[in-house]
């Protein structure tokens, strides 16, 4: 299974100047729950923002300019190679595409499922989540938080 996991503001912003433009307690809980013991694929800038491999996951970084290696840390030149590598490393693990913008844009057609957190705010940004053709999916609300900053988490399952 290949999934995309992302959070974005109403204006589809996912980043600004290389960082996530919000800190919301509990918002990343779903990310940890789903990706732990699986494979996470991300672009170089996303990886550099995090600054380290994610614990209890295989991390594959897409980069043509840098090579990453270490315990559960691998590199690939492009998304296609990264997905193939994920299946070679462990064909029984789910694969989560976790950013940034180009990984989401290229991967949206590969993904069987989208886990999308819609944050109830508008923020300034320079990096965006691509438009989603909702007619291709069954959309299910899986969590809603009403707090200082509210958000809704949805699961989009591709219609076969």
Describe the structure.
The chain has 160 residues and is of the alpha/beta class. It contains 4 helices and 10 strands. It has helices at residues 29-35, 44-50, 79-89, 101-107, and strands at residues 2-9, 13-15, 39-43, 58-62, 73-76, 95-97, 113-119, 127-128, 137-145, 151-158. Strands 5-4-3-6-1-7-10-9 form an 8-stranded mixed sheet. The protein has a two-stranded antiparallel ribbon with strand order 2-8. It is globular, with a radius of gyration of 15 Å. The two termini are 13 Å apart. The model has no long low-confidence stretch (mean pLDDT 95).
Unreliable runs = none
Number of helices: 4
**Average pLDDT rating:** 95
Secondary structure tally: strands: 10
Instruction: Report the span from N to C terminus.
Output: 13 Å
Content-based structural category: alpha/beta
- What amount of the residues lies in strands? 25-35%
What form results from the Cα inertia axes? globular
Strand order of the largest sheet: 5-4-3-6-1-7-10-9
Into which percent range does the helicity of residues fall? 10-25%
Q: Radius of gyration over alpha carbons?
A: 15 Å
Order of helices and strands: EEHEHEEHEHEEEE
Sheet with most strands: 8 strands, mixed
What's the gist of this structure?
The protein is an alpha/beta fold and 160 residues long. It contains 4 helices and 10 strands; from the N terminus they run E-E-H-E-H-E-E-H-E-H-E-E-E-E.
Feature tags:
alpha/beta; 4 helices; 160 residues; two-stranded antiparallel ribbon; eight-stranded mixed beta sheet; globular; 10 strands; single chain
């Amino acid at each position: 299974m290949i999934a995309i996991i992302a959070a974005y503001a109403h204006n589809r912003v996912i980043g600004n100047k290389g960082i996530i433009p919000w800190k919301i307690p509990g918002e990343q809980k779903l990310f940890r729950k789903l990706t732990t013991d699986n494979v996470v694929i991300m672009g170089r800038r996303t990886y550099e923002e995090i600054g380290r491999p994610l614990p209890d996951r295989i991390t594959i970084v897409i980069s043509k300019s840098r090579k990453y290696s270490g315990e559960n840390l691998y590199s690939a030149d492009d998304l296609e190679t990264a997905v193939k590598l994920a299946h070679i490393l462990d064909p029984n693990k789910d694969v989560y595409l976790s950013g940034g913008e180009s990984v989401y844009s290229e991967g949206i057609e590969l993904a069987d499922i989208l886990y999308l957190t819609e944050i109830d705010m508008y923020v300034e940004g320079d990096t965006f989540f691509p438009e989603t053709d909702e007619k291709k999916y069954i959309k299910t609300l899986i969590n809603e938080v009403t707090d200082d900053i509210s958000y809704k988490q949805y699961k989009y399952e591709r219609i076969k």
